[in-house]
């Protein structure tokens, strides 16, 4: 987990600052995405691999030279594939931590949702389109450009599954905020004013930690 995420992070920072322009469309018209080539924090991005590469695996040793690898957008594949592998490992790490602490595994299960979303735009969609050049650029403006192009080509905003997904994300955020705020606002204090309320509880205790009657009473009004 740590080596893959460190690799992805390191290459992202270096490429965001200094990567040369990338021939994303495969038509010998390179697009600059790094800071040293005229971009700022908003417009900068890691440009996806060239359409000339398609969905072929393109590590450094497959290119004739480092310059060719950079010109064809090799860093994008390196970052994305290491990142996806790293976050998948983190799912397992969350499950392991929960298991060793005697917790249920729902934290790791919940984390699979954003991992699936990332895999969709970085891996599944490019494979479906036949080229990593259709993947989401790694930058702010690049993300919005990806969204606009996706809407123009596929009208995704009218897709019922996308609508359900958006409703689920916003609804989940709402319910998480409501639940967390109600619980923390009705904690049963077991410590003095000079101590942290956290010191009054221990993991796995049988006694209740918050007043559920008060929480439901507030919510019901």
TrEMBL record:
<keyword id="KW-0359">Herbicide resistance</keyword>
<dbReference type="GO" id="GO:0016168">
    <property type="term" value="F:chlorophyll binding"/>
</dbReference>
<keyword id="KW-1133">Transmembrane helix</keyword>
<dbReference type="GO" id="GO:0046872">
    <property type="term" value="F:metal ion binding"/>
</dbReference>
<keyword id="KW-0106">Calcium</keyword>
<dbReference type="InterPro" id="IPR055266">
    <property type="entry name" value="D1/D2"/>
</dbReference>
<dbReference type="GO" id="GO:0016491">
    <property type="term" value="F:oxidoreductase activity"/>
</dbReference>
<keyword id="KW-0560">Oxidoreductase</keyword>
<keyword id="KW-0157">Chromophore</keyword>
<keyword id="KW-0460">Magnesium</keyword>
<feature type="transmembrane region" description="Helical">
    <location>
        <begin position="105"/>
        <end position="127"/>
    </location>
</feature>
<dbReference type="InterPro" id="IPR000484">
    <property type="entry name" value="Photo_RC_L/M"/>
</dbReference>
<feature type="signal peptide">
    <location>
        <begin position="1"/>
        <end position="19"/>
    </location>
</feature>
<keyword id="KW-0812">Transmembrane</keyword>
<keyword id="KW-0479">Metal-binding</keyword>
<dbReference type="GO" id="GO:0009772">
    <property type="term" value="P:photosynthetic electron transport in photosystem II"/>
</dbReference>
<protein>
    <recommendedName>
        <fullName>32 kDa thylakoid membrane protein</fullName>
    </recommendedName>
</protein>
<keyword id="KW-0934">Plastid</keyword>
<comment type="function">
    <text>This is one of the two reaction center proteins of photosystem II.</text>
</comment>
<dbReference type="GO" id="GO:0009635">
    <property type="term" value="P:response to herbicide"/>
</dbReference>
<keyword id="KW-0249">Electron transport</keyword>
<keyword id="KW-0813">Transport</keyword>
<keyword id="KW-0148">Chlorophyll</keyword>
<dbReference type="GO" id="GO:0009523">
    <property type="term" value="C:photosystem II"/>
</dbReference>
<keyword id="KW-0602">Photosynthesis</keyword>
<dbReference type="InterPro" id="IPR055265">
    <property type="entry name" value="Photo_RC_L/M_CS"/>
</dbReference>
<dbReference type="InterPro" id="IPR036854">
    <property type="entry name" value="Photo_II_D1/D2_sf"/>
</dbReference>
<feature type="transmembrane region" description="Helical">
    <location>
        <begin position="73"/>
        <end position="93"/>
    </location>
</feature>
<dbReference type="Pfam" id="PF00124">
    <property type="entry name" value="Photo_RC"/>
</dbReference>
<feature type="transmembrane region" description="Helical">
    <location>
        <begin position="42"/>
        <end position="61"/>
    </location>
</feature>
<comment type="similarity">
    <text>Belongs to the reaction center PufL/M/PsbA/D family.</text>
</comment>
<dbReference type="GO" id="GO:0009535">
    <property type="term" value="C:chloroplast thylakoid membrane"/>
</dbReference>
<keyword id="KW-0464">Manganese</keyword>
<keyword id="KW-0732">Signal</keyword>
<keyword id="KW-0604">Photosystem II</keyword>
<keyword id="KW-0472">Membrane</keyword>
